[in-house]
Amino acid sequence: VKGSSRKIVPASELLLVAQKLLEDNGYIEVPVGDDVARSNARMFESPNSIVMIAAFDSWADLRESWADYQGAAVEAITKRLRREDPKAWDGYLVLLTPSLIPLDQQGAANEIRSDTSRLRKLLGTGDEIESPSAVKRTLLPLLPINVAPGESARRSGLDALPRILKKHGINPDETEAIVEAFKAREPLLERLHGLVNSK
Amino acid sequence: MRIKSLSVSGFRAWAQTEQFDLDADAIILIAPNGQGKTSLFDAIMWSLTGSVPRIGSEENVLSKYNETGQASVRVDLQDGDLEYKVSRIYDGGAQGAHVTIGDRSVSGPTADSQLLEVLWPSALSAPDPSDAFVALFARCVYLQQDLVRDFIQDADDQSRYNALSEIVGTGRVTELQTHLERAKTAWTKATNVRFAESGDLRRRLEYLDDQLKSLGAVTTSLEGVESRWQSWWKDAAQYLEEKRPVNIGSSRAAASLDRALKALQAKQLAVGREADVLTELLRFVNSRPEKLAEPSEAEARKELEEISNEIAEVQGAIDERAAVKRKAKKQGKIRSKGDELAELATLALHQLGSKCPVCQQSYDKTKTKAYLESLTRTPELTLEVIPEEDGLSEMFQRLEDLEIRRSTASGALRRATANAEEERIFESELSRRLQTAKISTRSGVEEEIKSRLPALQRESTAVAGLLEQGEVIAVQLASASEAQRRDEVTNELKVVREQVTSAESDHEIRVKTGELAGKILEALRGAAFDLVAEQLAEVEPLFQQIYEMIDPHPAFKAVRLVSNLYRGKGRLQMEVSDPEFEDAHTTSPASILSSSQLNVLAVSMFLAINLSMRNLPLSCAILDDPLQSLDDLNLLGLVDVLRQVKDRRQLFISTHDARFGALLKRKLRPVEDGERTRVIEITDWTRQGPVIHQYDALRDAVTPVQRRLVR
User: Fold this and answer.
1) Residue A112 Cα distances to A65, B48, B469, B552, B557, angstroms
2) What is the distance between the alpha carbons of residues B626 and B144, in angstroms, rounded to a whole number?
């Protein structure tokens, strides 16, 4: 089993990491209801949805009080959004804890995950969160799909050749000349020769 | 490029003509199974690619309830300001496409080529571009319900790799490699030929250098030679066929003079030859043999004949006398023999007994006696009378004298004959020589010869003078020509030197180009694998992210793409694993995941490929009811993914599940200005086709910004 010697990440740190992730991806923090402890919960909104994050020191705390946090989130939403407003039904409750789920509590954890009433629950526990950065895995449904910038911005494999062949010591201008001539159905070596000749 | 609208008629489940406004970011198609969802998406694929292999025979595109017997689909595409109108018709016989781009229209195969060029140029390099386009469309754009798990479950490792390779467009890279190899070979050949040609130029340069050195610094002008040239030609004209001289400055002057000199040399030879002939003729005439005072050949022959007759006569007389003497001698011999026999017979008769006294043999005594008695009777012979004085000695003496005379006469005849032959030969030679000397008469030959010889001598002297002068002019001309040649060589040398320098420089650069092409070729050999690896490096994180967002399995939460080269062939496998347990992983997902979980894996892979191709020509993702039997949690996960996809692709999603449809409408609703989500609901199906209800999905009542919880 991996992570048997893992380091415990404090719940507060998990909360901060989650907050930053959401804010970095366009979410804006909004006030949480007064009846919910502000220290371990934050509420965010994006054009699409409303998200509450609550971090707990222990699984037991989480299990015991997650429903209260959902209630607080729902109250905050219903206070400001009408029932027929689609966004009013587009809420998420992210529940985080650094502690592991006891083996006999797995069923309870699955119940929380499967509870789709009112808000979708995203549960992240010490089982998955081995480090602060692992919080991202729990938040994935809320984050944009990360299409890595750069290399594949091309129309065909040919367009990638200057970059690929550069790794083999070929000047990209020379590869570019060959590729352009090939696309234009012109003599390849003549084009390359023109380039060599001009140097 | 996005799909803007769709018109379907007589296609599959769509018997009647239906128009669809698809100018939206997301299109949600909700319908119970079997009521035309798949047909609608198939219509898009068929219109753009000309084929939907999954449905089998082309005839299957025809609606069973269509009254026209024709399937017709039109798709309008929008790419910035440019509009593409693509329509395709099938009437049970032939299929035809028609494409309008802006104000330009093409039909038939040209239209299909145009579509390929616009929608998937990389497919053009495939052995069958149309098939490749269909396959790529199915892999990257349209995830068909029946083929959801095709890529992850049915395809083997190699065909999976090849499919990704096609998506990346390595076919074009391979084609480029082939072209470059051919071009390099031709280039090297041409470079070698040019090098050989520059070798000729260099040799020419060396030759011209040598020429210039050998020409020296000659500066003779033709100005002083002009008058001599004219005068010489005037004098020589009488001996030449070429009467008028060419200009001395002409390039033909030297050749003209050369011809004239040759003609004069020939003339001189002819004159000399004629003088020789005449001189020899004169000598010959004077060498005529003198006639001797001997009898003529006829007289000698007559005398010889007379002597011969006389000899014959004397010889005859001698012979006659000799014959008589021989006969008399013979008769004498015969008489002597008879006398001897008679004596013997007489003796025998005396001794005749019963037996022979010599051999004691018995005999017929009567016959023998009669015979012996006959022998004793010798016949009388008449003997020739030989005169005492026969005159033979005188005859022999006369014969000897005659023989001497005949010998003398024979010698005289031989001499006479030889003299006559000598005379005939002389006459014959004289005739020939006269003919050669062109003298027609034999009289006055010597006088004619003596009169012609001085004239010939004068002519020979004149021609010799002309030759001498002409050669001087030729030397001057050659000298002037050499100066001209020097100028020409100098000029040519300059040009050739420039050409050689240029050729050497060109050759050097051509060799560099060829070497560079070789290096590029070498690099290209591994480029296809690098390309796929690069694409995989982009696909894999997306694949992982999407799979984890949907999170279909409680333990196998991680996925990975494993690629490698085996015997030069690429292979691609998918590995699912449990991040919590190091040994819990497999490259056969079907052995671990349920059917619906496999569907999630397949959808994740499809979307990862689709999104990794950020410049996909047709910027769409079409998913036909991809998830069956998923629990609510996974459906929520999928919808979250689709909401992200919608921001990057024009999303087409269909579902048979009304609850999922409602969720899609809510989750994929437009939230920003300018966004639009289109909903097509099929509420019933009749033989005229599906009963449809099209509308825009509701967006938030007021702008999201105003509705934020932030106040």
Assistant:
1) 12, 46, 131, 16, 18
2) 8
Q: Do B531 and A157 touch (CB under 8 A)?
A: yes
Locate all alpha helices (DSSP H) within B237-296, ordered by sequence: 253-286
Indicate the burial class of B517 (C-beta count within 10 angstroms; 0-12, 13-18, 19 or more).
Answer: buried
Q: Mind listing the pLDDT tens digit for each residue in A45-88? A: 998 889 999 999 999 999 999 998 998 888 888 888 887 788 88
The tokens for A67 are 């429903």
Q: What is the pLDDT of chain B when averaged over all its residues?
A: 86
Q: Report the b/e string of B558-593 with b at 16+ CB within 10 A.
A: bbebebeeeeeebbbbbebbbbeeeeebbeebbebb
Chain B neighbors of A52, CB-CB under 8 A: none
Cα separations in angstroms, A195 against A139, A152, A167, B523 = 51, 26, 20, 19
ipTM rounded to 2 decimals: 0.86
- C-alpha–C-alpha distance, residues A82 and A89, integer Å: 10
For an interface test with A, which of B516, B668, B698 has the most A Cβ atoms less than 10 Å from its Cβ?
B516
- Eight-class DSSP state of B142: E
Sign of CA dihedral B66, B67, B71, B75: negative
User: Hey, what are B285's tokens?
Assistant: 């005439």
What's the pLDDT tens digit per position in B403-459? Answer: 999 999 999 899 888 888 888 898 898 889 898 888 888 888 888 898 889 999 999
- Which pair of tokens denotes residue B68? 């026209």
pLDDT-based confidence at A23, cuts 50/70/90? very high
What is the DSSP annotation of B363-416?
--HHHHHHHHHHHTSPPP--PPPPPS---HHHHHHHHHHHHHHHHHHHHHHHHH
Q: What is the mean pLDDT of residues B391-400?
A: 87
Residues B577-617 pLDDT 10s: 988 788 889 998 988 888 888 889 999 999 998 988 866 77
- Cβ–Cβ gap A86/B666 under 8 Å: yes
| Helices B527-550, B170-215: inter-axial angle, 10-degree rounding | 160
Q: Do A80 and B704 touch (CB under 8 A)?
A: no
Looking at chain A, which residue has its C-alpha nearest residue B512?
Answer: A196
Chain A: nearest CA to B122, how far in angstroms? 6
Contacts of B699 in chain A (CB under 8 A): 86
Which chain B positions have a beta carbon within 8 Å of A154's beta carbon?
A: 615
Q: What is the mean pLDDT of residues B612-624?
A: 85
Yes or no: say if B37 and B7 are a contact pair by the CB < 8 Å rule: no
Pairwise CB contact (< 8 Å): B554 & A120: no
Strands ordered across the beta sheet of A28-30: A28-30, A41-45, A50-55, A91-96, A119-124
Residue of A nearest to B522 (CA): A168
Tokens coding B155: 């395809």
CA distances from B486 to A155, B215, B494 (A): 64, 6, 12
The reported pTM is 0.64
